Amino acid sequence: MTLRMFITLVRLTGNTSARGGRLGRGRIGTWATYLIVLLAFMPLAYSLYRASDELYAILASIHQASAEIGMSVVIAQLFSLFYGLLAAVSIAFFATDLDKFISLPIPPWMILTARFVSLWISQLIISLPLIGPAFAAYGVHQRSVGVWVSLVLMYIIVSVVPLLIAFIVSILLMRVTNVGSARDKIRYVSGFAVIIAYIAIRLIGRSQAFRQYGTPGALATLLTKPDGLLHQIGRYFPPSVWEAKAVTSPSLSGGLTNWAWSILFTAALAIALLFLANTLFLRGYIGSGEVSRRGAPLRGSHVSGVTKNTLGPPPFKEAGATADQALSVPPNSAYALPARALGRTLFATEVLQFFRSPTFTLRAFSSIITMLVVMIFTASKSMSSVNVGSYLAEFSIGAACLMTMLGSFNLVAGTSFTREGARFYYVKSLPIPIREWVRAKWLLADLISLLPAIVIVILEATFSIPWPAVALSAVLGVLGFHALNGVMLWMDMQSPVLDWTNEQQAIRGLRVLIFIWGSMALSGALIALTIWLRAGLHLSDTLLYVIMLLVFAIGNVLSTWLVRANAERLLQAVE
Amino acid sequence: MISYQQVTKRYGKSPTPAVNNLSFTVNPGEIVGFLGPNGAGKTTTIKMTVGLTRPDSGHVLVNDIDVQKNPLAVKQIIGYVPDSPEPFGRLTGREYIRFMADVFKVSKEERERRIPELLARFDLEDAFNDKLSGYSRGMKQKVTIIGSLIHNPDVWILDEPMVGLDPKSSHTLKETMRQHCDTGKVVLFSTHVLEVAERLCDRVLIINHGQLLASGTIDELRQQKGGGDSSLESLFLELTAQ
Fold this sequence. Notes:
The complex is a heterodimer of chains A (575) and B (242). Chain A has two domains: 41-289, no CATH class; 342-573, no CATH class. In chain A, 74% of the residues lie in helices and 0% in strands. With 575 residues, chain A is mostly helical. Chain B is 38% helix and 23% strand. Chain B has helices at residues 42-49, 71-76, 93-103, 108-121, 137-149, 167-182, 194-200, 218-224, 232-241, and strands spanning 2-9, 19-26, 31-35, 57-62, 65-66, 78-81, 155-159, 186-190, 203-208, 211-216. Chain B is globular, with a radius of gyration of 18 Å. The interface between A and B is large, with 58 and 66 residues.
């Protein structure tokens, strides 16, 4: 009975029951779309595998093959910690559906553990592309069933430690902050703090990890040590080393010991979480709910001349009252904000709703900011040694592809209608033409996508790229993300998930992965096309630009057609 | 005027239609209460009227405009209060009402006149600048009611409007419904509170299994059931038990 209740809690947290029901009612078309998109990723997945395979060959030649597993484990764990912190704070701290469960006779540890498992499952999907290629390359070369079993087990547990840490931090935060009146502000501050910390760890880790190995002699010493690279990669977080060595060491000479260390460490964190769940979680939640959430009151001038005393007697039918006895309240301009055109009001409302929802805003900006900062850091170190002049066209088209990819990483278009949740039906009952509604959402997505594009253009200018090339890459980039946003909008209209109870559910799951990897695959394909046109067909710069402009323009036409032709039908069908 | 002409609606592959060949009319200047047990088809009928779902067959006409053929024109003359208010949680009351006024193209003068009046009536002035996510269930219901009335709709449709309202607000709402109707507009609402229907409605419609069981004033229903002074509750129980 307890297990069944626990599974129900996990399904409710992940909203899986609702999705299962949809599938059962014949949403096969939606899944077929996902399948086609996933199949389209195969070339990208294969190219990543090949890259991992080549890295394995290099590392194996210097007896450091374990470093590849170590690197992927560290990256996956860092990523899980980063998103785990953002997600755990949302689903364990600020979730609006906790009241429903807390009022039931369910122990707090079970509520929290169900939330943890739900997040863990979603993290399994997200971390697959990060560690899958490296694990596959390692497994193929090792040719051992035991190694494959270890790799699968490690894939399953690799996110557990960072997620446990994220939950523990969020419970502690919950207990020490009474944030009822400043919920959203705290979420923004903590969210951006996590983003900054993540960037700092990545950059410091990259620059400091091998600092003392600057001389050839020291580096040689490092490489001659068994697992020397692995230890160096994971020296700031030993559990990464234990987990990597659990897979890469033979069972009887360290593998089992490392498994034991990993399991013991995970168990210790799990026990700490269960203890905190039973002691602090409920108190923290109740404490944060006991703070007033009221905003700024109206000023006196707003309500002058308007009092309840102006109300007349209740004009009930049997009291013989008529409409003549309607209220007599003087007009007051202080209440009425100026009128706006429908398109403007829809866009303004989209913007307000989006930027006031920390879960959506942080999700949109976290990956963009992280990637941009890391990119700028990398570029600043390497660009001086690259002669851009020889590859000007490739460089500016590549920048446009990057704008396209980063422009869709924010997931704004891909969750346009899903973000509405249950409110979707209410808006649908209003006299709003669907094309206007869609336009407002597309415009918001483009607005957010513009941010990384602007940063990339500034970067290009910083590296003294001639302005015509910068301008062309900007035009291509805008065309690129606009088209991709249209496609993602269309995908969201196919089957918006409207029955979520906390905002995290709206931005998690398979569709998110498809959007991110889809945009990467598309950008990769465009870059490959550019390289082929240049190296294969030896086209001139001008012709290359013309062809790519044509490709991007056709993409826009197709995307606009996809949205225009289907929006009315798809959204009317959502009942 | 709302006219339902042999309207049928079935969800998915369900063998039983949610609404089955329903026909009735709600006239201007009339408050009509829509009664029926849970799952009787009240909300589905209302959703078909406001364009949230489409009938499989039949027509719903609002002021002689077919909802399916011209949904936007119909929505422009309807004010709708859903059974569970889901206003824009991240907007303040003021921003939400502005949004509704913009959507319904309410003039500046009309805004200045109607917004203070409605806020005073529903006692929401103090919370007008707060975010809707901080409102209680009843406050959300009240702000949704104000939003639905901002354009003084010809047809006002309310689905379970009394749920979540305190006695004073509930009283104010009934009073507002009566006033709206007295100006020649249509008010159609669903409710489970039979006392409200008995006191407020010009006519009640009793529906079950998607079919109309009875329609008329309380006296007419009593006469249909053989006279006497039976309450609406006993009439309702008798009709829906069949």
